[in-house]
Structure prediction request, 225 residues.
Amino acid sequence: DTEVTQTPKHLVMGMTNKKSLKCEQHMGHRAMYWYKQKAKKPPELMFVYSYEKLSINESVPSRFSPECPNSSLLNLHLHALQPEDSALYLCASSPYPGSDTEAFFGQGTRLTVV
Amino acid sequence: EDQVTQSPEALRLQEGESSSLNCSYTVSGLRGLFWYRQDPGKGPEFLFTLYSAGEEKEKERLKATLTKKESFLHITAPKPEDSATYLCAVQAENSGYALNFGKGTSLLVTP
Prediction:
């Protein structure tokens, strides 16, 4: 199983809503990532979890709150988002932190903030 | 500051017309250079990792090469199903775990 599964695939939320994005992998990877990708732009790193601990936060606004309940799951909690936060949110995993092997990406959650 | 520049931004090829995509980079200590393919609305799909100058890797119609300043993705006799955006990313020794992506090359292969 070389899959990273993200749910939901699409999400539309209002600026006052609270929602969560979920990511799951069963490859035994110990590093997990959240990326944000705007249309026709490359992915931009948001957070890195290393052995279930947050190790990198790329100055992301507090309206985005990551959580790693266990080594297979990664959540991104969303609250009071702005329309400019609309994007494709990608989860990725790699075997271990600092790994120079490939990161496997999920299919993404297409988020629209209205 | 680490930089990754891909060219061209867009490329249109006839089926069977071979070509190359370029990824030039400046990084303080390269740990690895990655090539991904991304279809619209999907997550990036891993293609290759290159670690040192002179290294080459092949997969079907694709071949990736690496020098100290740039990488090329050669596409031999492309087919319409090769149409996608090809992303190059570098991982620097001092960047922790982050992949720094270029803006990508959008490839369209017409029958």
In short: Chain A has no helices and eleven strands. The CA atoms of residues 12 and 112 of chain A lie 5 Å apart. The first strand of chain A starts at residue 4 and ends at 7. Chain A has a mean pLDDT of 91.
